[in-house]
Each structure stands twice: as C-alpha cells, then as structure tokens.
Design goal:
Length: 117
Amino acid sequence: MRLPPLLLLPFLAFSLAAEVTTEYTHTNECSRKTQRGDTIKVHYRGTLASDGSEFDASYKRGEPLEFTVGRGMVIKGWDEGLLDMCIGDKRKLTIPPEFGYGQRAMGAIPAGSTLGE
C-alpha cells in the first residue's frame, strides 16, 4: 500500500523532532573518546524534565553505575548521549520519551516522561 506524500509529513515531522539534547558542562581533551562497546562507569542524577524532581541518583548510593555503551543495557538516550566522551567529562542530557521509557511508567517515572539527567 502506498500512502500519499502529504500523509507522511506529520509522521516525519514528529519522528525528526525527538532527539536527545546534550549540554556540555565540563569537557576534557583526550586521545580516545567513548565508543560503542566500551564499558564505562558514570555517576548520575535522574530527574523529570517537567518539574525537576529527582527519581534516582547514583551519588546517593556512593557508587557509579557500570555498563557497556551501545548494548541496550541502559535507556537509548544514554547509549547515544554518552558517546564521544573523555574521562572526567560531564554532560546534562535531556531525553525525550522515545529515547527513555516511552509510554510505560517505570517506578516514579510517569509514562511519556522527558528525562533530565
């Protein structure tokens, strides 16, 4: 079935609008940046973009989260937003639902939430 081009435009506009945004809060120079397949450790503070409320923080546990980038061990927003980093870099990610938990609620995170990390 072939759809008329005008019916595809709203879908394309929506799908192109959703992206992870990155604020670089501290950057370092290095010879090798993170790549897919690297195992990294990160400290984080997870908040809801809607009101800034914190839903999780590794700092409170006193131990960073360790995972392999690009393997689906964390939300897609992290798999993409933590690439090309040097040791010691700090970023603030804003993650739309399509790159977070989507339309399902997850603990203190309501369905359809944009996350601020």
